[in-house]
């Protein structure tokens, strides 16, 4: 009989048929259910008949042990070179032993544990449990050992690159099935999209330097990473032409163009364009200078363009007229003015200004070019009043008029007393002599009017 936990009883036949009989199993009238061999005795239970028969009942176990494993599932991938295989085993007829890949393991109270060394690649693992009836139960599974990190290649962006774009595209490849994440500036990782062995992601950049970390993790848990540094700069670099400070006309066939460039995030270069030619002067401490040769008379545009490493750019221009015809010097708007300090600007409208001399009045000249004439220019201090007429006089006389005329015509060099006593023009708001530190025709006329009583 096959063991199934139910009682296994024995039946007998009699002659004549139908007689009552008694059956014992190893001397016990209860039919057995346990695995084993039993001596059977059948005796006729009748007053009219006698007889008996004997035999053997065998209840056998044909099923393998119950085997339960606690380890990685079939088809799993691990990066741990040692795999622990533990489990439990039981059988009604008793457990004879357990083997893992042919190696016997110790079973204690129905439990066992075994450390198995894996080799790189696929590892077939066979666990066999055998009971006392030589029945067996087998578990077969394959575990893959992958201790190598995935090969990660980042195609873009390039390390230490600069960009003017807020969004950066992260692309690359991996050599095995993996998850890929992208992290910017230690922020929250985000998963990249995968198509075959290629990945891509788009991230926002912060102004300035950004650290981008790309990580790939394979099915075994191995991880590899790559870091890219990207600078985001979307600001145009300021550029200025400082010399010449404005549009100019020149008779010189060569000119130096100077200026400044600045960029607080990335470096910048400058290109000077003139007469269809491009020049690339060096920038030192934010300053550049480039000599230009003017080929012929005409009007030219000078353009300085600054471009930073992210591709942002800005420009400044100057217009230049090259004229070799003689240009006479001409005083600027500072000429003939009354000022309280030495004039520094608007000295000449044409020509080259000399140094300003004097302490008030002040004088300077505007030299012409190419044989042009030189203009004499001056400015004076405001005059608070005059000492007129001269001491001992109640009115000016003809001598005063003649001296003023001689000063005006250059016959006499004026003294300080002359400016005090003969400089009466212009008149103040009350019609009284005020003076302006300059002897002019108006001073001669004013004295003559005083002589005849008109002033």
**Sheet with most strands: strand arrangement:** 5-11-10-7-8
What global shape is seen?
rod-shaped
Q: Strand share of the residues? A: over 45%
Low-confidence stretches: none
Largest sheet: 5 strands, mixed
Layout of strands and helices, then pairs:
Blueprint: E1 21-25, E2 36-44, E3 52-59, E4 66-70, E5 77-78, E6 82-90, E7 95-100, E8 103-105, E9 111-117, E10 121-131, E11 136-145, E12 152-156, E13 161-163, E14 167-174, E15 178-184, E16 190-191, E17 193-195, E18 198-204, E19 208-218, E20 223-232, E21 239-243, E22 248-250, E23 254-261, E24 268-274, E25 277-279, E26 287-293, E27 298-308, E28 313-322, E29 330-331, E30 337-338, E31 348-350, E32 352-353, E33 362-367, E34 375-380, H1 398-409, H2 416-422, H3 441-451
Parallel strand pairs: 5-11, 13-20, 22-28, 30-34
Antiparallel strand pairs: 1-2, 2-3, 4-6, 6-9, 7-8, 7-10, 10-11, 12-14, 14-18, 15-16, 15-19, 17-18, 19-20, 21-23, 23-26, 24-25, 24-27, 27-28, 29-31, 32-33, 33-34
Helix pairs in contact: 1-3
Q: Could you please describe the fold and organization of this structure?
A:
The chain has 455 residues and is mainly β. It is built from 3 helices and 34 strands. It has helices at 398-409, 416-422, 441-451, and strands at residues 21-25, 36-44, 52-59, 66-70, 77-78, 82-90, 95-100, 103-105, 111-117, 121-131, 136-145, 152-156, 161-163, 167-174, 178-184, 190-191, 193-195, 198-204, 208-218, 223-232, 239-243, 248-250, 254-261, 268-274, 277-279, 287-293, 298-308, 313-322, 330-331, 337-338, 348-350, 352-353, 362-367, 375-380. The strands form 9 sheets. Strands 5-11-10-7-8 form a 5-stranded mixed β-sheet, with no helix packed on it. Strands 13-20-19-15-16 form a 5-stranded mixed β-sheet, with no helix packed on it. A hairpin with a 4-residue loop joins strand 27 (298-308) and strand 28. Helix 1 runs antiparallel to helix 3 (441-451). The longest helix is centred in the C-terminal third of the chain and has 12 residues, at 398-409. The N and C termini lie far apart (161 Å). The model has no long low-confidence stretch (mean pLDDT 88).
